[in-house]
């Protein structure tokens, strides 16, 4: 099969490899579309290796058709056995940038009837990451106050929708007016362009009680700023470190005074059991809303997979609003 390889110069080139062999609890998918994630860029640069035993090929989410089912693949959310030709989307630990990929059956989603493969490829990683952060980790309650950094990103756009589905007040930070408008269109109550306004200053003036949950992909100096705007018993969830790995001024006294919880999480290296439960929980809580369009994937651009370099460049430059998708041909 064809796949996209990272060569010795960290360039992306097409190559050939053998087809994956599935275990009894897995399915083999013919990949139709691939979701691009920042983790792909990090792995390409040698900074985010796949978990031990997983495919070295890039790619964490795909959509496509089942071409083979293992003996113990089980059933979908409608209690129907997975079968060949089922249209699905999925979370994978690696191997997505290929014509075929193997997937744990419990990490499969049925593709909603009205969805394109491109839409399916834009769902798994972002919605599961956002869901994990808001609910599994931070236990978001209805009508809470939520701050989401990088609201126009894939995870940010998903988190806005999930929080609004629980009647929360959502404030987000973005880098441009175009991204601000995109977040407001998704339901965010306020979108702060950090090029023009400091979110700490805004929060002091408009949110004196602070935020119950803060979703942060920036880290760096944002860690200290997040502490300043968090509510009593608030929860800060850090998912990435686009702003750097160190925070020079961390006020432990404020952490103690506010009884804050700081969590850091990745999804890729979680256990198979954890991911299976996360998929099941998301399906139970939000699959119906996804299928009916009450929540939806946000797609910035779709590229043929031969243009993967353009997609990576756009993400590296933070130019996307929502997901970047590769179509396999």
TrEMBL record:
Pfam families referenced in this protein's UniProt entry, alphabetically: ADH_N, ADH_zinc_N
Keyword list, A-Z: NADP, Oxidoreductase
Record-linked SUPFAM superfamilies: GroES-like (SSF50129), NAD(P)-binding Rossmann-fold domains (SSF51735)
Gene3D superfamilies in the record: Medium-chain alcohol dehydrogenases, catalytic domain, NAD(P)-binding Rossmann-like Domain
Keyword Oxidoreductase: yes
Entry EC number(s): 1.6.5.5
GO molecular function list: NADPH binding; quinone reductase (NADPH) activity
Keyword Oxidoreductase part of the UniProt annotation: yes
Residue ranges constituting the Enoyl reductase (ER) domain according to the UniProt record: 8-326
Cross-referenced InterPro entries: ADH-like_C, ADH-like_N, ER, GroES-like_sf, NAD(P)-bd_dom_sf, Quinone_OxRdtase_PIG3
SMART domains per record: PKS_ER (SM00829)
NCBIfam families per UniProt: quinone_pig3
Protein name: NAD(P)H quinone oxidoreductase, PIG3 family
Native organism taxonomy: Bacteria, Pseudomonadati, Pseudomonadota, Gammaproteobacteria, Alteromonadales
């Amino acid at each position: 099969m064809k796949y996209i390889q990272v060569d010795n110069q960290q360039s992306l080139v097409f190559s050939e490899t053998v087809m994956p062999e599935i275990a009894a609890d897995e399915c083999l998918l013919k990949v139709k579309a691939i979701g691009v994630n920042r983790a792909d860029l990090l792995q390409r640069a040698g900074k985010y290796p796949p978990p031990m035993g997983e495919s070295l090929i890039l790619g964490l989410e795909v959509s496509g058709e089942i071409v083979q089912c293992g003996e113990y693949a089980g059933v979908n959310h409608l209690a129907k056995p997975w079968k060949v030709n089922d249209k699905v989307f999925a979370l994978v630990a690696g191997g997505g940038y290929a014509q075929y990929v193997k997937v744990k059956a419990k990490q499969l989603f049925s593709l909603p009837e009205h969805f394109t493969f491109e839409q399916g490829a834009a769902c798994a990683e972002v919605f599961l990451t956002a869901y994990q952060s808001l609910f599994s980790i931070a236990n978001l309650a209805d009508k809470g106050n939520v701050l989401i950094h990088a609201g126009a990103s894939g995870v940010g756009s998903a988190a806005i929708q999930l929080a609004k589905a629980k009647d929360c007040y959502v404030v987000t930070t973005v880098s441009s007016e175009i991204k601000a408008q995109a977040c407001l269109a998704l339901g965010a109550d306020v979108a702060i362009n950090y090029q023009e306004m400091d979110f700490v200053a805004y929060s002091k003036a408009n949110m004196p009680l602070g935020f119950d949950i803060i979703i942060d992909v920036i880290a760096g100096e944002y860690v200290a700023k997040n502490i300043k705007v968090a509510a009593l018993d608030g929860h800060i969830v850090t998912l990435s470190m686009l702003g750097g790995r160190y925070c020079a001024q961390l006020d432990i006294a404020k952490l103690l005074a506010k009884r804050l919880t700081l969590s850091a999480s990745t999804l890729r290296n979680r256990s198979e059991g954890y991911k299976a439960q996360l998929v099941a929980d998301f399906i139970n809580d939000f699959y119906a809303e996804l299928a009916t369009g009450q929540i939806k994937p946000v797609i910035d651009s779709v590229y043929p997979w031969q243009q993967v370099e353009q997609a990576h460049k756009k993400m590296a430059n933070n130019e996307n609003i929502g997901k970047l998708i590769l179509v396999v041909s």
